[in-house]
Amino acid sequence: MTLLDVDGLKKHFTVDSGFLSGLLGETRTLKAVDGIDFSVDAGEAFTLVGESGCGKSTAILSALRHQQPTAGKVRFKGQDIEMYSKRALRGEAQLIYQDQQDTLNPKMSVGEAIAEAIRFHDVVPPEEVDARVDDLLERVGISPAEKYQEPSAFSGGQKQRIAIARALAVEPSLLVADEPVSGLDVSVQAQILNRLMDLQEEFGLGLVYVTHNLGIARKISDTIGVMYLGRIVEYGDVDDIFEDPQHPYTQALLSANPVPDPAVDRDRIVLEGNMPDPIDVDDRGCPFVPRCPEATAECETAEMGLKPFEGDRGHLVDCIHR
Amino acid sequence: MSQESADATVTERPRQSRAVAGATRVWRIVSANSLSLVGFCIVLSLVFVAVFAPVLAPYEPSAQQLDNTLAPPSADHPFGTDNTGRDILSRIIFGTRYAIAIAVVVVTLETVVGVSLGLVAGYYRGKVDETVMRGLDVLVSLPPLLLAMVIVTTFGINIWNAMLAIGIVYIPMMSRTVRSSALSIREETYVQAAEGLGYDSKRVMLKHILPNSVPPIVVLGTTDVAYALIDVATLSFLGLGIQPPKPSWGAMANAAREYILVTPWPIVFPTLAIAIAVLGFNLLGMGLRETLLYGEDYDEVVE
Lengths: 322, 303
Prior knowledge:
By secondary structure, chain A is of the alpha/beta class. Chain A has ten helices and twelve strands. Chain A has one domain (2-317): P-loop containing nucleotide triphosphate hydrolases (Rossmann fold). In chain A, helix 4 (110-120) runs parallel beside helix 6, helix 5 (129-139) packs across helix 6 (156-169) and helix 6 packs parallel to helix 7 (186-203). Chain B: This is ABC transporter permease.
């Protein structure tokens, strides 16, 4: 069953360019997300990868109405997402935040934080809440005896696991994790990711994972969307993308991913320049032109959009040379 | 809402151990700084005096000895007697009750109204914020004591109006303090997370923002008790507060004013009482400010 179906999602920000330009009516628009499509099925793990600032967080936040999108249709479980009340939607789709140090209210015991979520969404009858809290904490590897502690008593990794328990407490069908392990120790990262994957499988959750870390993306996802400047430039099965990347950006991105073997001889594709300021992006043509090793004159004016690659149904690429 | 009342019980520890833990916590915060420790002791003694006034006072506060007026301190009357022969010590002891009760009522009023307005303004921002804060700015632009006097004379001279008047005067400061912490706290990830869990704005404000803005509220509230004591005494001194024959420090000082050339004692002791009470709350407030707001080892003290 398709849980989340995003169609043509856009999120533009109007940039305040100063008092005088404001008077003259000049406004500039930052196209953080500029028309993306993806869908996530129940039990599927979908990852959005891309550099910082490519709009991957904004994409998922506006898809789930944490922010109001500029345009686009989002359907959740086949129904227009606008039809859901805030409470109903948050009960279905839960978010795990990047900032694990600060994601729990410092003045509330962790048990109470989880219990509050359970009660608010009426997940179980009141007399079962306590047992439920214990069960959830155990699942994420926190001793239920510690539930009276305030968040300051826990490490960053523990807090993130508690946050996962709290997200699962409302029994969502979709879990969104926005770089949940960045800033944590690598061993702790692995621990949390394994836990997340186990829980996803156990509850049959849809998972949307947002990261810039290709290693993580490969480990946890079924499908991947590679984002560049507010667009998905390549979309497909995780193995297709990692084994046979088509878009020049994906190829460059993958070639930059460290391989833990000094003997491996890598052909590193080094991109020139930085990602341009999304304010200055031209509407016409391919946004990757300034950095693309394969760019031709045609690329600057071509009509862009994801197209199936070599008739393969699942693998989509947004490049006119493919 | 039954949901709210259930919140406190299910996953919290039993009530009694929570009370003990709370008291220990208060003690640890107060004793972390010598200023607040001294202030706390003074405040505690004032409360003790207020509670046990009938036991501690040697005479009835309004018992007159017309053959022994304006007497200097002696063994019988340690602080002397006033112009109608009433024992000043006894009147000061009973006056503590009024002073403390009024100051506490004023600060409670200030806190309830000020915190609500500040939370709402800081949480909703935009138009709501502008409306609330500009309204309060109007209050601030008037001289506080003058405003209090206008309120009291307009609505009638009695102690309830005096408390109301002073409370209103203090509201803007409390609102501004709470608003500014609400503004910054609402950007914290845990507030975003609370919104992300679908919680309604009331729950986010009361359970997630408010508990995290307690320290500045406590500090300001404590210091304001001291100011309220002065203001109540001032209003009473002007005849707009507690009415004689009730023993109020300010009114006592006012009555003794006429006889200041005959004997200074009836004005010295009530004034000293005001000074000590104000000092107590001020020291407590200053110490708490150090510990709660600027303390480097705040977490060590509190956790």
